Amino acid sequence: MTEKFLVFALISSLFFTACDKDEPEIPPEVELITTLIYTLTPMDGGATVTLSFADSDGDGGIDPTIMGGVLDANTNYTGTLDLLNETESPAESITEEIAEEDEEHQFFFTSTISDLVVAYNDQDSDGNPIGLSSTLMTGGAASGSITIVLKHEPDKSADGVSGGDVANAGGETDIEVSFPIEVQ
Fold it and tell me: Which of 36, 61, 155, 180 is most buried, by the most CB atoms less than 10 A from its CB?
């Protein structure tokens, strides 16, 4: 009986260790972002401007709704980003997840308006920019767009990335939205 037990134990241990090697890796779940809101508050007072993107069903299906805005010329704004998954009830805050996983995320801001500049107001625990909080500065009257890109796992040490240049960031794009802007 002892021999049968030893043979059973040996075969069982081989089976269980073999299973560990053959188990498929499960990729991390991709977060669905259905809503992006960029709230711009003039530092010297005035009306708040809200840029918004909403895609109630996610990619495909119904086209998203994009609302741009009118900004005052020669004005500094404090900007805050809020991202949601509104297919969940209640809506899931993706902003909280980005803040918790700040080293793995960075927003990038580009504009077709040459004298519209966005600067980072927040940093991850390594001192690299995130972009949930920013300062937007306008120059003279112009029209164009501002594009906001959220990268997942960018190379924050790559050339120009800490200054907001997405060209060398790498990583995966979680969301990219262009908003029409009028500066008056």
Answer: 36
